[in-house]
Write the structure tokens for this entry.
Amino acid sequence: MRDVKKMLTNLVNRVEEGIVSLILVVMTVTVFVEVILRFGFNTGMVWADQFVLHLAAWMVLLGASYGVKVGSHIGVDFVVRMLPPGARRITTAAALLMCLAYCGLFIYGSWFYLAKLHRIGIEVDDIPIAKWIAHSVLLIGFVLLAIRFLILLVRVLQGKADSFHLADEAREALEQFEEEPVDKEA
């Protein structure tokens, strides 16, 4: 059972990474082609700006959820780190509850926004795609983000985690500095 869970987790991780990577590649290629067409041939793709704009929104909102999972977000947590483990867990749980409330507000608002767009039936400017489909990343992204926060909250309540796992750029820079060989001739 544990092996199946690990396999599914790895599959979900790879799918998430693949989707975000694919979006980044498609955005880069689209912008590159648009620049070549515009400045090299004095023409262009009318739909490219809207397409890249919507892909960027998808990448950011899906990437935010994945960032919480892998701990790549940057945060100011030097005060929280000084707290004893119990207080750190309580502070983290309170912060996670606020994050969940924020996600809940966005999910609620996104649901009504998308429903209204669906009823109106308009398309994205210059792209023949229903606007509610293109903007559905609001709902999808915040649901995924809420799930990530909920998973972390459960881990905190179970005592398996005591804080957000944030990127520590200062520590990473120091580790990189310590690993670099010293040039004695300079």
Notes: The two ends are 58 Å apart (CA to CA). The helical segments are 2-41, 48-70, 78-82, 85-120, 131-134, 137-157, 169-179. The mean pLDDT is 86.
